[in-house]
Amino acid sequence: MDDEQLLTAVAEILWPDLRDLACREHWRVPGHVCLPVSARADLGNLVATLSDRYGEPSVGANRLPPLPLSGQVDWKYAWPFSNRWVAFGQTVQSEGAGPTLVIALRGTPVAEQLPMEDSWLEKLVAVTGWMPRTAGQVDWVAVESRLGTPLPRDYKALVETFGHGMFDGFHCVFMPDDLIKNSESTARLGQAAWEPHPPFPALGGLVPWMGNEHEQSFHWITEGPDPDQWPVYVTGAEPEAGDRFDCTATEYLFRQLTDPQHPIPMPVDFRAHWFMDCTGNVELDAAMESRTQAP
Question: Is the Cβ–Cβ distance between 203 and 197 less than 8 Å?
Fold first, then answer.
């Protein structure tokens, strides 16, 4: 199959995520499906396209998840999507050696199995199967100075742990620069239709910290001097009153992802949760082609 057919096949196996994975290709090992990669495929472009669709992949022995066929394939990249991995590598057997693309089962713990004593951030890391990357430190003093207020500690830890990306391919927590820009834009344009909570810096005003593809906005109500006590306020695309939740941003995000009875349910009931890394690692992008050329 050509590249476009291959990408379509990947998407159809990933969603709906109820399909059994039973390989009919070279290795009849349960729990995965092999997809043939053309010898004429531009492997660098293929990996880049998969990264555009499914985020930055896990790369390297220390970050790659346990994958099937470890004795037959030298795995290079893996992308999470619900309860699936999209994995790309090179076969190491002399017979039939070449690029290999596999969709494999991905396991993550369910929310009910997580230790009660874990923090909300620890639970979010566990339920998404996220492996935190080494990232540059955020200058929170500069961020808070420009914004004009301290920020909740759990938000800072959330940003430093996950970075830029999307939870379940849907929720995007704003990075500090975007948080500032959105706050300044909202204050400049005004938001009277959402009163009694005007935009920050008005007393008790709203600071947006997350958005999603359904144009919902997630804010803090900046009431009181302690930002760790600020409640979450959720508004829709239309200018009408929102919903208040007396919890931190991280607790709210974890509960909405994992609680099927949440007052604001997720639009899709995925069988597993994941974090789609959207950092756009330039060095990785530049190295893709050289690391994935067909022999």
Answer: no
Q: Which domain holds residue 37?
A: 3-106
286 in a structural domain: no
Which alpha helices (H) appear in 34-189, and where do they start and end?
43-54, 120-128, 140-147, 153-162, 176-189
Q: What is the separation, in whole angstroms, between the first and last Cα of the chain?
A: 19
Query: Do 145 and 87 belong to one domain?
Result: no
Residues 182 and 203 in one domain: yes
> What is the mean predicted confidence (pLDDT) over 158-169?
96
Using pLDDT thresholds of 50, 70 and 90, give the confidence band for residue 284.
Answer: very low
* Look-up of token digits 């999470």: 80
What kind and span of H or E run contains 9? helix 3-14
Residue 182 lies in a domain: yes
Q: What is the pLDDT of residue 293?
A: 39
Q: What is the pLDDT of residue 189?
A: 72
Q: pTM, whole model, 2 decimals?
A: 0.89
CA–CA distance, 184 with 200 (Å, rounded to integer): 8
